Amino acid sequence: VTERNTNRERLSMQANILGHVRDAVMVLDADLLVSYWNAGARKLTGIDEAGAVGRSLFEMLDLELLDPIHETEAIQALVNSGTWKGRIKLNGSTTRHVIVEAVVSLMRDNHGDASGMLVVARDITETVALESQLRLQARSDTLTKLPNRKVLDERIRSAIAERDEKGVGFALIFIDVDRFKLINDSMGHAAGDALLQQVAGRLNSSTAPGDLVARIGGDEFAVLLSGVANRHAAEAQAKRLNESLSRPFEVGGKTFPSSASLGIVLGDVRYRWADELLRDADTAMYVAKRRARGTAVVFSEAMHEDVTRRFKLESDLAFAVERDELELAYQPIVNLATGDLAGFEALVRWNHPEMGLLMPDEFLPIGAERDLLGHIDRWVASHAAAQLSCWLAAYPLRGGLTMHINSSRETVLTPEYRETVRKALVEHDLPADALEIEITEHILLDDHAAAAEKLESLKRLGVRLSVDDFGTGYSSINLLHELPVDSVKTDRSLLHSAQDEGRGSHILQTIATLSEALELGLVAEGIENEEQMRQVRKLGFGYGQGYFFSKPRSVPDAEKLLRMPNWLGYWQEGDPAESRRGPRPAKPRRDQRSTASPNSGTETRS
Questions:
Q1: Burial 417-437 (b: 16+ CB within 10 A, else e)
Q2: Are residues 116 and 147 in the same domain?
Q3: FRET partner for 586 with CA separation of 20 to 30 A, picked from 34, 60, 419, 497?
Q4: Residue 246 belongs to a domain with what CATH number?
Q5: Is 374 inside any structural domain?
Q6: What is this structure's pTM?
Q7: Of 236, 245, 233, the residue nearest 203 (C-alpha)
Q8: Is residue 325 part of a domain?
């Protein structure tokens, strides 16, 4: 009797303990009928103890094994080891989609025969949802919701395997949004994010089922094309993607022209790894961006050398200023009314210790991408001011000589640049209006009121400001009266098309008329022949610059002009050939003509 009472008390205590356990605890007898059902089981299933005891667990609840194992295999594992652990989904009359982690233990009597089962279950529905979310985040881009690099790598590996086993072709397109940094910097990161989301949407809508669009990072995307038979098919799809991305984007209430540079690589048998395809597609994209933005280029082996050179330049450019490897060339600016020398434009060059003299269009775009333009722009301002000071002291008859200095939009509005200009004026005792700082239209992508305020601060130093490459960018000429600029320099492309009485001629006429109304000076850039010179002079342009007058010159060559008091930049009508004053400049080579640096806004004329 005492032993029975002790056992009864022990069982009562155990039941009391199990009743307070938060996990669901269920005991099934040899017939698999419920013999014990604690409060945790009631909370989990919604069935109380009275409704559960004596009933079959499998009749009360719809149970679904979530582990990749068949029910018979689970039972066999329980019989063999005495324990089974796994995840089960419960669908009961009062329960919906509850995921539990269950531990089932086989109970045996004194003879070792199976006498029932002990089931302990814990609700892990929230845990499973969190795991699913984390898996999704690990495989997708949080901003665009596109698959990420990890998924892209997996799909490329699958495409390679399918190519080897079944001969199914594929291609990879690497995409970089042109001028994204410009929009991101001027409009803010929120606008940049909105643009990337729109890009993702357009790419998705422009691809076929079975293709994969992924975001690599930043403004870079990739599209994996499945079932691509040849180069022509890959280029055709790239063209569709490019057309989709070439339509203007609406961001922050403003419309921005858009384009993207695409690199294409065909998944032929030489490629064994995803990294190899991504590397070569990226290389082709960089080549496309350098050739002409908004284009697509198919990778070739010859591109490796070009990219290796670029990486070398990226590495070395960071130290070019401190190693004193930069130098300036000076292109004359001519008074069109008198033909006399009015000033120079300082144009930066990089005297690379291994590659020789590099033109700015080769390294300034790299400087923009690597955030190095500030160092370069400040170096140019300081050294050009120093050179002008030397010339004014050495050639007093050139007292009205001016120096035009280019500055990128990333630099010109900064306090550091203003301080560089201020120090240059003081240290070299220059008349402030002898310096004319050229900015590009891209500066107007910013809040033009804020830009005007910062430019006013710079102009209070007494320097002159000029809008360079005007007429081909984003701004409206109507904004000129809101900015503290003194002159406008038109883009060379307008002058070239004006010769054919094309659109450029009408734009030049409009700029001339409005600039006169705003009392702004006018400089025509890119004059290469006498006809162009006469045309812009007739339109009212006061100054001109180009190979018709002179190519950019070294300091010694520029001083040859300064020592010629009667040198004229052009030859007056009626003068006999033998009386032309000054040497006729050589015909400009195509590779020496000016180009504008994409994104940076800094002049890259050679």
A1: bbebbbebbeebebeeebbbb
A2: no
A3: 497
A4: 3.30.70.270
A5: yes
A6: 0.58
A7: 245
A8: no
Average pLDDT of the chain is: 84
d(CA 100, CA 117) in angstroms, rounded, equals: 17
Which of the pair, 96 or 358, is modelled with greater confidence?
Answer: 358
Cα gap 286→494, rounded to integer Å: 28
Cα separations (Å) of 381 from 45, 203, 428?
77, 43, 12
Q: Are residues 201 and 71 in the same domain?
A: no
Q: How many other β-carbons are positioned within 10 Å of the β-carbon of residue 96? A: 10
Please, are residues 304 and 282 in contact by the beta-carbon 8 Å criterion?
no
Domain coverage including residue 218: 140-301
As for how many domains the chain has, the answer is: 3
User: What CATH number has the domain bearing residue 581?
Assistant: 3.20.20.450
| 82, 108, 130 - which closes a domain | 130
527 φ/ψ angles, rounded to the nearest 5 degrees: -75, 120
pLDDT at 93 over 70: no
pLDDT band at 592 (very low <50, low <70, confident <90, very high): very low
What's the rounded Cα separation, in Å, for the pair 557 and 320?
24
In a domain, 559, yes or no: no
Low-confidence winner among 157-166, 217-226, 580-589 (lowest mean pLDDT): 580-589
b/e per residue 320-334 (b: at least 16 CB within 10 A): bbeeebbebbbbbbb
The verdict on residue 321 lying in a domain is no
| Residue 522 confidence (pLDDT) | 94
Residues 517 and 542 in one domain: yes
